[in-house]
Amino acid sequence: MAIATSRLLPTTTGPASASRFTLFSPSSVNYSLLCRFSSSSSVASLQQPISLKFVVNNKFRNPSSLRICSAATSSSMRIGAPPEMTSQASFLDRKESGFLHFVKYHGLGNDFILVDNRDSHEPKISPEQAVKLCDRNFGIGADGVIFAMPGINGTDYTMRIFNSDGSEPEMCGNGIRCLARFIAELENLQGKQSFTIHTGAGLIVPEILEDGQVRVDMGEPILKASDVPTKLQPNKDQTVVKSKLEVDGISWKVTCVSMGNPHCVTFGTEVSENLQVDELNLAEIGPKFENHVMFPARTNTEFVQVFSPSHLKMRVWERGAGATLACGTGACAVVVAAVLEGHAGRSCTVDLPGGPLQIEWREENNRIYMTGPAEVVFYGSVPL
């Protein structure tokens, strides 16, 4: 997974003078910073590349040790080293005009640019700017940009998100876990915390647990076909369960669920339900589901393999983002579909490419609870 771009730009001191900033993201979440200076540089004694290593993870609480925090972006932006930070709070509180200060988070590899937008109900950047920032070659690189905004209708906060294609989804499960951790950082809150968050999918309540995991009350699934929405004909009351969907000449069996955003879940075709998700060409088949005429608002699509009644594996093609390493609302929809089709019980581990989520659909209140991690990747600033 690309975390940030590396760009080599000339400086005003001459064509041979340059600085190169490279951020890597191995599984250990270690990052290297490589700097190269010419003799005309302000640090003339450094003639050879040097390597500075630091660690950023969910326990990172002292960014004062980070001397470089900006990421390279598109050609309209420049590499820069912001002034040295004295504390995490001072970084998050910075208000220089013309700059966007952000923290990058990920939930099982589903990565987001988090922006402190608590002073306004309008996002600090446009959807077009979000597309540029999310670009993994010429931007920061992310699946979306999330804004922490003032609450409305009595809620603590509001969440808005722009996908990497500039579209705005109703909600994002992995994203809201990241938002909960981001809010705790902004408010300097420690230990177990919970928030009420207004989203396009309604009220969502994430809770930060003592171990740092985030459990989210995702609300009740929406099963009525017209509310998902899907044009597929209901075949079980007003729901679409294990219905036939023709995609590129193949008849798939699908169940349609909304978690505030639409999902099409499939465990296989009419010929075989023994789906081997790792063998799928997701880039080829995913867009055909997403843009199918039966889904007027487009759809997220989950392809599911059943290991046991409590263990599922899925790959996801997200509406507006494509193939991602994880999708929280998708994992919830998968468990609902698995129960409705008789594949699984109400409490499951769902394996995603980025790692597992724990999903529970409680019978007593019909609500779905998702539990999983959210971790800091790095802090940064970009000129707008």
Automatic annotation (TrEMBL):
Pathway given in the UniProt record: Amino-acid biosynthesis; L-lysine biosynthesis via DAP pathway; DL-2,6-diaminopimelate from LL-2,6-diaminopimelate: step 1/1
BP-aspect Gene Ontology terms: lysine biosynthetic process
Keyword Amino-acid biosynthesis: yes
Keywords for the protein's UniProt record, in alphabetical order: Amino-acid biosynthesis, Isomerase, Lysine biosynthesis
Enzyme type, top EC level: isomerase
Alphabetized Pfam families for the sequence: DAP_epimerase
Gene Ontology cellular-component annotations: chloroplast
InterPro entries (alphabetical): DAP_epimerase_AS (IPR018510), DAP_epimerase_DapF (IPR001653)
GO MF term set: diaminopimelate epimerase activity
EC assignment: 5.1.1.7
Subcellular location: Plastid, Chloroplast
Highest taxon of the lineage: Eukaryota
Catalytic activity: (2S,6S)-2,6-diaminopimelate = meso-2,6-diaminopimelate
Family: Belongs to the diaminopimelate epimerase family.
HAMAP family on file: DAP_epimerase (MF_00197)
UniProt name for this protein: diaminopimelate epimerase
Organism the protein comes from: Cinchona calisaya
